[in-house]
Amino acid sequence: MKDTATTARTAAPQVRIKGLYKIFGPRSKQMMAHVDAGMGKAELLEKHQHVLGLQDIDVDMHAGQITVVMGLSGSGKSTLIRHLNLLIEPTAGVVEVDGVDVTSLNESALREMRRKKMSMVFQKFALLPHRTVLDNAAMPLEVQGIDAATREAEGRKWLERVGLGGYEGRYPHQLSGGMQQRVGIARALTSNSDIMLMDEAFSALDPLIRTDMQDLLLELQKELHKTIVFITHDLDEALKLADHLVILNDGAVVQQGEPQHILLNPADPYIEDFVSDINRARVLRVRSVMHDEPKGRPVAGDVDANATLESLIAMSGGETNLAYRVMQDGQIVGEIDMADLVRALVPRVSEGTARTT
């Protein structure tokens, strides 16, 4: 993944969600008065038989970054992503794409945005079974009215790019689940949209295939710099993919930010419990634990800033009294002490936090 942190801090977000609420039920607009007065999800359901799906969501998504929205089942993550292309209309709040409030678009403008601005990769692949792999991959351009030769050339290019060159004439049922999802990704790329929405895109895949698909997505992202909104319930997947991580619980944002920062600085007991069982050595990077200013002590060698702590432990042979110089792009950016590394491996738990089993 490319480093877009500096750009993100200075550029306006490509997607901005502000004060977003979604209440499911026939009198959703009237229910906002109760929610504004402090009524929560359980009470709203019990007293008024309406479901508070999203509450006061504020999230900025920057161009060229992967924003991962994660949470347990029922947390509101799939509801949230469907607001971006207005498959679900908000009860209150604003969803802006490139400075335009999508809730203000008429039917024609909304259809145009869905065709050209955003593409979507689904959990269940959503391929047309009676059409070939090439036809499925080229479909976004067919919908846009592009001529057959052009759309087929684009479809072939992206099928080749995702490793499916030679499968153009097959049908979806002749492919494995992982191959079908590759067709889904090729289809999204063929549309040439700026924004890709991926709703639990890899959740239906076997673990090894899922890992391959994650690696493919990161490889493509290095080249294409898409704005990707990725939904998942899997923390390992979220930490691997995210530039910006948003964690939902009961329809509200509990914490958001750079994944490494969240892992080291959980905002509350819910997040602490959420991240407590993660393999921190495999996920945490040297840059997240290092000192910016060298302490002046002898170093045992150099380590890359983006190396995992696991790889540094292997490099050190398990010795805890060593220090290493941290390098990035050939420059010294800091120093890491193995004692600090060991401390980073211990999850932070607030006093009184109850662990669930």
Short descriptors:
disordered N terminus, 2 domains, globular, single chain, four-stranded antiparallel sheet, 13 strands, CBS domain Like, alpha/beta, Rossmann fold, 16 helices, 357 residues
- Total beta strands: 13
Q: The CATH topology of the largest domain is what?
A: Rossmann fold
Structural class: alpha/beta
Largest sheet: 6 strands, mixed
* Average of per-residue pLDDT values: 90
Order of helices and strands: HEHHEEHEEHEHHHEHEHEEHHHHEHEEH
Tally of structural domains: 2
Helical percentage: 25-40%
Strand content is 15-25%
Amino-to-carboxy terminus distance? 34 Å
Bulk shape = globular
CATH architecture of the largest domain, by name, is 3-Layer(aba) Sandwich
CATH first level of the largest domain: which class? Alpha Beta
Radius of gyration: 23 Å
Strand order of the largest sheet: 6-7-8-3-9-10
CATH H-level superfamily title of the largest domain: P-loop containing nucleotide triphosphate hydrolases
What does this structure look like?
The chain is α/β, with parallel strands linked by helices and 357 residues long. The protein has two domains: 5-12 and 61-275, P-loop containing nucleotide triphosphate hydrolases (Rossmann fold, 3-Layer(aba) Sandwich), CATH 3.40.50; 280-344, CBS domain Like, CATH 3.90.1280. The chain has helices at 5-10, 28-36, 41-48, 77-84, 107-116, 133-143, 148-161, 177-190, 207-224, 235-241, 259-264, 269-275, 280-283, 286-289, 309-316, 338-344; strands at 15-24, 51-61, 66-70, 92-97, 100-101, 118-121, 195-199, 227-232, 244-249, 252-257, 302-304, 323-328, 331-337. A six-stranded mixed sheet has the order 6-7-8-3-9-10, sandwiched between helices. A four-stranded antiparallel sheet has the order 2-1-4-5, sandwiched between helices. Strand 12 (323-328) and strand 13 (331-337) form a beta hairpin.
